[in-house]
Amino acid sequence: MNEIRDGSTDRWFNFLNYFCITLFFLAVLYPIIFVLSSSFSSPDAVLYGRVRLSPVEAGLEGYKALLEYKPIWRGYANSILYTVVGTVINVALTLLAAYPLSRKSCYGRNGIMLFMTFTMIFSGGLIPTYLVVSSLNMVNTMWALVIPGAIAVWNLIITRTYFQTTITDELLDAAQIDGCTDFKFLGFVVLPLSKAIIAVITLFYAVEHWNAFFDALIYLRDKDKFPLQMFLRDILVMNEVDTSMIGIDAETMQAREGVRELLKYTVIIVASLPVLVMYPMVQKYFVKGVMIGSIKG
Amino acid sequence: MPELHNNIRIALPFGLHKFLGISTRMKKFHSRIPNIVMLPCEVMVFLCAFYMLPSILKSLTDKSQRREGRSALLLRKMMISRQLYMMLLIPIAYFIIFKYLPMFGVQIAFKKYMASQGIWGSPWVGWSNFEKLFDSYQFWRVLKNTVGLSLYELILAFPFPILLALGINSMNNQRYKKIVQMTTYAPHFISTVVIVGIIVQFLSLRMGIVNIFLEYLGIDRIDFMGKPEYFKSIYVFSHIWQNAGWGTIIYLAVLAGVDPQMYEAAIMDGASKFKRILYIDIPALLPTATVLLILHTGRIMNVGFEKTLLLQTPLNLSSSEVLQTYVYKVGLASNMTDYSFATAIGLFTAVINFILILIVNAIARRLGQTSLW
User: Fold this and answer.
1) Are B273 and A13 in contact (CB < 8 Å)?
2) ipTM confidence
3) pTM score of the predicted model
4) Are residues B254 and B314 in the same domain?
5) Domains defined along chain A, listed by start
């Protein structure tokens, strides 16, 4: 669009466009900055709502308090475990399913694809799924969080489309002439060429696991198995912060209240940081990945 | 109902005997190996047999082995792709166990499910669960909330990414464009719990920044979370905040694929930027938007869920209870869990969704647009 110059009537449009977009941009940006600033402020400033844009009475009190709040770190470790295990299973199964479905020589692949995409529009529901999981003895274990959601059909579709467009028939023929089996082809040719889409679905699945809350709510009973989001819910939504856990000098009720409020902001930052740091790195891939997947699919 | 005596030792694959409520005793050999290992083995055996059986049977009964009949051709085709089938084994097993088996279990909506008796053993009660559902005063309120929230979300939140994408696409300054995109994608990655946490903090009566701002304007402070009438708006606006940027990805991708010659031709005909958007960009987006709309209607009844559950307070419950949270409360969270009743609600939800998808898809097809099928 660089060679196309804007006419004079376009100036009004451009102005309006930039104005509206900037409004939205600021509306998205402000809460993030606010939370960030609050987490670096003092308990008093947060309690009395004195934070507007930049940190007020800046300090690291919130983070110090967080470091001593033991349950959070248990949840953090659990979340990391569930995310890593879950994502590995997810990506492996998705690749394993998408590759055969992308091959024209696979007899019956359209039927199998229909079999899988039908689950997108009709499902058994919450209770029957819960019953299946509990009859497999997976309740209150890590597996209930990791296996029932193993393959997301949407990710399957974009991976399959990616394979269809990237792995050309000539490539396949060349490999088969050299006596390459399907498994070998998948492992040595397809995977190295698919780094982009693997990055995309890894990110999608990993974020899904990291942010997962509902599955943990219904399947887990032991507190020491809870992922991070469950503790976040206790702190942020249910307002249950065990202030005895915090080592900070918080004798007065008000000081304790202040720390409790400050902790909320700090914990938001700490919980969201891994994801927000990871996603720009993969960003250039997933725009392309989603594009390929959705247009052709 | 067939009764199996305890003498007969049967263990169905993947511990199904428990799921189905058939009283059996596990074979000793099953009980030694942990369930999670037996699963894939049983599944693979089961599926291999399932795959091979028809062709094997056909080739056994086929007298004329000389000519390559259809069945032999089929068998040969399948043999060529046998490695591909092996790759598909586990994923298909996953779908059967965790997607189709629950569909099979949906029948407990028509029974009075008792855990001790499993699915087969529970008595059949026909439509009584549904009658109970439609009679309960809660149901109609919950349904109204669900539909109202869904429509509100559809009308406001669905067009937003489209408009935003059109706007971003028309931006000339590439650097600002990239900054806007990167920033607006970010909220999508924040978890629901955190989003609700931010909402609760911002709307807090005492120290929320929104109320402080209202006070600055001279307006009285409002207890947003405690008033039912604000629930829908809170839900939808936060939804837009979180997802609008992410939703533009697909639309921007489509717009990037538009032939630049069309723009040139339009400019030569004297079309302003606004007209170009109206006549080139929007028609280009229409197919994608239609497909996404159809998929969206398939989830109308499922609106909310995590976010609604977290945003509920005892005070705004009259407008924040939606079907999914109702199912959760009745089915899993309360002391007197009624699995059958909850499943009936779930089935009702799924059927309505399905019918809606069919209707919207038919409408789209009738209007000449792309449709899902």
Assistant:
1) yes
2) 0.85
3) 0.80
4) yes
5) 9-68+241-296 (no CATH), 70-224 (1.10.3720.10)
